[in-house]
Amino acid sequence: MQVVYDNAGQYLRVENTAATGPLRFTDQFGKPIQANVPLFKPSGTSQTGVPADVRNALTHFKDKS
């Protein structure tokens, strides 16, 4: 695990260096963000991907200094 700082965007991310791809970034506690979430519909439950804006909201932490 490592903390990555983006100077241009002034935010922090926690990266799991053992993982690859966009799922390598975790929440603030180092827990992975799920690739899919349940989608509840009248016809039943299925899986759907987590939108990029939601994933970014869960993995980008603004620098308040």
Could you give a quick summary of the protein structure above?
It contains one helix and six strands.
Describe this structure in words.
With 65 residues, the chain is mainly β. It contains one helix and six strands, in the order βββββαβ. Strand 4 and strand 5 form a beta hairpin. The longest helix has 8 residues, at 52-59. It starts with a strand and ends with a strand.
For this structure, the quaternary state is: single chain
Query: Between the first and last Cα atoms, what is the distance in angstroms?
Result: 23 Å
Average pLDDT confidence is: 86
Gyration radius (Cα, Å) is 14 Å
**What string, H for helix and E for strand, traces the elements in order?**
EEEEEHE
Any idea what the shape is? elongated
Q: Specify the biggest β-sheet.
A: 4 strands, antiparallel
Outline the low-pLDDT stretches: none
By secondary-structure content and strand pairing, the structural class works out as mainly beta
Portion of residues within helices: 10-25%
**DSSP helical segment count:** 1
Please state roughly what percent of the residues sit in beta strands, choosing from under 5%, 5-15%, 15-25%, 25-35%, 35-45% or over 45%: 35-45%
- For the secondary structure, the number of strands is 6
Task: Describe the secondary-structure layout.
Layout: E1 2-6, E2 11-15, E3 25-26, E4 36-41, E5 44-49, H1 52-59, E6 61-62
Antiparallel strand pairs: 1-2, 2-3, 2-6, 4-5
